[in-house]
Design goal:
The complex is a heterodimer of chains A (519) and B (140).
Chain A lengths: L2 H10 L4 H7 L27 E5 L3 H12 L3 E6 L10 E2 L4 E3 L5 E3 L8 E2 L5 E2 L3 H9 L3 E4 L7 E3 L11 E3 H21 L9 H15 L34 H7 L17 E4 L4 H11 L3 E3 L1 E8 L4 E7 L2 E7 L1 E4 L3 H4 L3 E2 L3 H9 L5 E8 L3 H4 L6 E5 L5 E4 L9 E9 H8 L3 H12 L6 H4 E8 L22 H5 L5 E3 L11 H20 L2
Parallel strand pairs in A: 1-2, 1-16, 2-12, 9-19, 13-17, 16-23
Antiparallel strand pairs in A: 3-6, 4-5, 7-11, 8-11, 9-10, 13-14, 14-15, 18-21, 18-22, 19-20
Helix pairs in contact in A: 3-8, 3-16, 5-6
Chain B lengths: L9 H22 L7 H16 L3 H19 L23 H10 L17 H11 L3
Helix pairs in contact in B: 2-5, 3-5, 4-5
The chains are: A alpha/beta (519), B mainly alpha (140).
Amino acid sequence: MTRRDFLEKAGRYGGASFTTMTALGLLSRATGRGAELQGLPSVAAGKPGTKVVILGAGIAGMAAAYELGKLGFTCTVLEASQRPGGRSLTIRKGDTLTDTLGHTQTCAFDDGHYFNAGPARFPQWQVTMDYCRELGVAVEPFINVNENGLYYNEGVAGPLAGKRLRQREAKADARGHIAELLAKAVNTDKLDQKFTAEDKERVLEFLRREGDLNADTLAYEGSSRRGFKKWPSVTSTGEMDPALDLLALLQANFSVHFHRNNEFEYQSALFQPVGGMDMLAKALFAKVKLVVRFGCAAQEIRKTPTGARVVYTEGAETKELIADHCICTLPPPILRTTAHDFGPMVKNTLNIIPFQNSARIGLQFKRRFWEDDDRIFGGISWTNQPINEIYYPSHGFFQPKGVLIGYYMFGPPSDEVTQLTPADRIEYAMKQGEKLHPQYRAEFDNAFSVNWSTVPHIKGCLSHFPEKLTKTLYPFLIKPDGNLHLAGDWASHLGGWQAGAFESARHVVKNIHAKVAAL
Amino acid sequence: MRLAPHRLPPLLTLMLLMVLMVLMVLTACARADSPKPAADIDKPARRDAELIAASKNPATVKAGKATYTALCLACHGAETAKGDSPSNLFDPKWYHGGRPSEIERTVLVGFLEKNMPPWGEVPPPENPPALVAFILSQQK
């Protein structure tokens, strides 16, 4: 490449240095955690076997079209709805949604505010991060843990029922008390295992740090980790509330929330695209928009002796598309009620995918009281009420208004709100949410709710393939059935994550490329 | 409205009496738990009794809970499930038939249009009854 070429190409790709360097091949492209596509040779133009029809313009469908496009394949993406992204749905002012029960909502958030109805975050290890880099999507930290966030459990035993606690108070006290118990057992040789004096001291040293114990007595006497009633300043060293009782903490059952953020999917650091989760879907769409056709709903997915045939409707017309391969990313609830030629075991497997409902509501408030009054800047509060969790926005701090997620529910509670009118869903969120934040009613502005089982063309939220069936049925999802292929987060071990859709798409692209290369 | 039997023609009265007697005999048969029941009517009743008996066997319930946790929990929630919806299996309200045999049928045949899979062909054959036994054992 000449210097002149470099400058021209750099200019064409604009100033964003990552994008420019990626486009020039100076930075490695997304590599994923399974199907390596880097270095695969492009197929010759017009070579047999290189025409691919893709059903669905969500992350999986668009990622497949994008990666196949890079390798010289000719793709057509048929999308039943009128927008790209699928479940990567960000709701902003003016957006409307009519669910399958006939409820229509129009979003009345203020400009600049949004609510992610679907995916809302990703951990740093996922391939989603690589695609944001490759596609020039700016990211910012997603605050998944906030020790100033609340715990509120009601109907439980003990004195903490119906009390608001800061997460750090429950965590520091529970860990302190348990470390004390263990330290005393170790110290008095009450454990099965016999330690040497040296080992015993090492274990005790670990427990002193783990629980912030008194170095001499090994007692837990409270800790600054639990925060202060009066915070340290120039004139005060700070005043603490007394530690909570261990049994009271266990009765209140807060510990079910302690380890959420230790799980590998939720460990820090997590990120979100700046401006809404659909920014990634939009960036991907910009790469493949010439091959995406909206309003095209698949009716039949057929095998042919040499490839695949898709019958679809576009408006009132029924049409047909013949290709060498078909990648089907329709969510299982749609796919299992569509006529198809997938084999009987694939069909069985599709039938048992537990594609769950989930429900979320975005609540816009006139004032960011969770920041102003409660000093909770981002993060999540947890409750044993059906609303389950309240997400505070990780962006837009100090703005006059804010949108938080007022519930995120699965199972029976999500099915219950799905049957409610949008107005009743607001009341549902209010009645429970005000127990954590009494400011709710006075500050409420407007809301928008999404129940995934009633979103047209999707009809569900996510599934985690049953572990018990991983060896027997799961393989049918990820193996080509003739020239028919399945892709989606639900056909991966990363159900519900955009990364699952990316990885699954890459897996299918690699299978198709290998098949064509062998021709 | 009161019936006025003395106004009915004698033949009609006789026919009514015969119908009444047949009905009484049939009801008596069903109540007596006859060993030779009319198959279509009493098969579900027998199945109900078998499943209720299974729900009192701790080993069966334990096996059923394992299946529930592996395959059902994600959409139906834990035994502490809250919310009035068809997916709540632990409240007293049933949307698709609450007899034990009806619950078993729903597990086996499913409602695909409502995202309930037909589990009949997937888990080992002893699991659906154990699963139903577990669900019955947790009814509040």
